[in-house]
Amino acid sequence: MPTAARLFSAVALAILAFIVSGQVMPLMPEGTDFGIFTYVNMAVGAVMGWMVVGKRAGRGLIPGITNGMTGMMAMMFWCLCIYGAYEMFLRAMDRRYDDPFEGVMAIFKLGFDYASMIFVQNIIVTLLIGGVLTGLAGEYAAKRFR
């Protein structure tokens, strides 16, 4: 059921995804074609804000903050899985894997490789602050728009 808390949380996590996407782009190898990178991240952020943060809003300040952090972590997990799966698919089309299980395992390895590239101090701080603000936005909306 649509609520103001879900809407506020979805918008807040989509904005966080937009900001972090801009911070990630300079960290990638030169010549990387980003295409719809930012839009995919914003869509994942909006879905995680709607489903994870907004669903559990209205339980108080501290649970709201931890709820926002959970949503931020879920957003990062799914974005890394999506890009790991995309890279695995590109490599599979070049016949780099011998069997399907090797391809599935490569998704997690590639996601971990991307995570190790992008988790630098400014991105971590941005994610932490954004997660807290997302949780607070969901709590504000849940209390204000009943």
What does this structure look like?
The protein has 146 residues and is mainly α. The protein has one domain. It is built from 5 helices and no strands. The longest helix is centred in the middle third of the chain and has 33 residues, at 61-93. The two termini are 13 Å apart.
State the order of secondary-structure elements, H for helix, E for strand.
Answer: HHHHH
Shape: elongated
User: How many E-type strands?
Assistant: 0
* Number of discrete domains: 1
The main sheet comes to:
none
Structural class: mainly alpha
Q: Helix proportion of residues, in percent? A: over 70%
Tell me the span between the first and last alpha carbons. Answer: 13 Å
Q: Regions with pLDDT < 50 over 5+ consecutive residues?
A: none
Strand content: under 5%
Give the averaged pLDDT, no decimals.
Answer: 93
Total helical elements: 5
Cα-atom radius of gyration:
17 Å
Task: Give me a quick take on this structure.
Helix content is 78%, strand content 0%. The chain has 146 residues and is mostly helical. Helix 1 runs antiparallel to helix 5 and helix 3 crosses helix 5.
Question: What are the main properties of this structure?
Answer:
146 residues; 5 helices; 78% helix; 0% strand; mainly alpha
Break the fold down into its secondary structure elements and pairings.
Elements: H1 4-24, H2 37-53, H3 61-93, H4 100-118, H5 121-144
Helix pairs in contact: 1-2, 1-5, 2-3, 3-4, 3-5
